[in-house]
Amino acid sequence: MSHGTEPDLGLLLEPEPARRLADTMQALATPSRVRILGALALRPCSVGEITAAVGMEQSAISQQLRVLRHLGLVVGERRGRQVIYALHDDHVRVLLAEALAHTDHLRLGLAAPPATEAVTA
Amino acid sequence: MSHGTEPDLGLLLEPEPARRLADTMQALATPSRVRILGALALRPCSVGEITAAVGMEQSAISQQLRVLRHLGLVVGERRGRQVIYALHDDHVRVLLAEALAHTDHLRLGLAAPPATEAVTA
DNA sequence: ACGGCCTATGAACAGCAGTTCATGCAATGA
DNA sequence: TCATTGCATGAACTGCTGTTCATAGGCCGT
């Protein structure tokens, strides 16, 4: 399926591809943005709804929504006096799902015996 | 395949799961770590090899390797007086590959016409 | 047109993360 | 044992990032 032939991971050694990947991943590197995306993964929401769901200042939400917009992860559309935000497309949802799955998987490894940690015990 | 039934993305609304995912993703949120992982994706490397490949101070490399170790993304094993690092397992490689693929895909969306950006043109 | 809701933006602040410098520890070879 | 190589660690610094506060702009009711 989608990753039958892996793209050249050696590219990540180069500064530019590495920087781009890092920038995109930074969207998922802060709890507030992850929660916002989690809310939008359930359904499109107005800023007010997101604010209530996440429990942060409205201002902070708008700031992070701006970041997410510029990264192309979410889109906003005016509807009356409010703006409805949604995930940009299903790829974002898949990215979230895979990140979550990998996170769980990796944390299992951390809980496991240190057969892997051969240095600086 | 692997994500036939998506894990509950609504979990990401909760602070703790969000924080954990954010922590893990932060490993990919900085170019230096991405480049290190890119090098290790090609083959296991000693710290010196990574340092040469990435072109940073050896000290910085070790610091980031520590972060990556604690996140369970890489493992190190002593061999003589050097330490050979490698990706923890193939899941890490898959995560890198998918992140790279998603990055490319998302950047295509950004280059595309703003049919999606309906607010704050 | 005016007042009120909803969102966006600018500035200031605090905290953190990545780098560097200097040093310490481990392991080999003479 | 001593010197040397290779890696790790602690401290200090810098820059960035996320939050808050205050304010501005848009859009709808009346």
Helix content of chain A: 55-70%
Low-confidence stretches of chain A: 113-121
Q: Distance between termini of chain A?
A: 39 Å
| SSE arrangement of chain A, N to C | HHEHHEEH
Q: What oligomeric state is this?
A: homodimer
Mean pLDDT across all amino acids of chain A: 87
**Largest interface, C-beta closer than 8 angstroms, per-chain residues:** A-B, 71 and 72 residues
Secondary structure class of chain A reads mainly alpha
Number of distinct helices of chain A: 5
- The amount of beta strand of chain A, in percent, is 5-15%
Biggest β-sheet strands, sense, barrel of chain A: 3 strands, antiparallel
Widest β-sheet, arrangement of strands of chain A = 1-3-2
- Rounded Rg of chain A: 18 Å
How many strands in all of chain A?
Answer: 3
Architecture overview:
The structure is a homodimer of 121-residue chains. With 121 residues, the first copy, chain A, is mainly α. Chain A contains five helices and three strands. The relative contact order of chain A is 0.10. Chains A and B meet through helix 1, helix 2, strand 2 and helix 5 of A and helix 1, helix 2, strand 2 and helix 5 of B. Chain A binds a DNA duplex (30 and 30 nucleotides) through helix 4.
Helices and strands in order, then pairings?
Two copies of one chain form a homodimer.
Chain A: H1 15-26, H2 31-42, E1 45-46, H3 47-54, H4 58-70, E2 74-79, E3 82-87, H5 90-111
Antiparallel strand pairs in A: 1-3, 2-3
Chain A binds a DNA duplex (30 and 30 nucleotides) through residues 26, 30, 32, 46-48, 56-67, 76, 78, 80-83, 119-120.
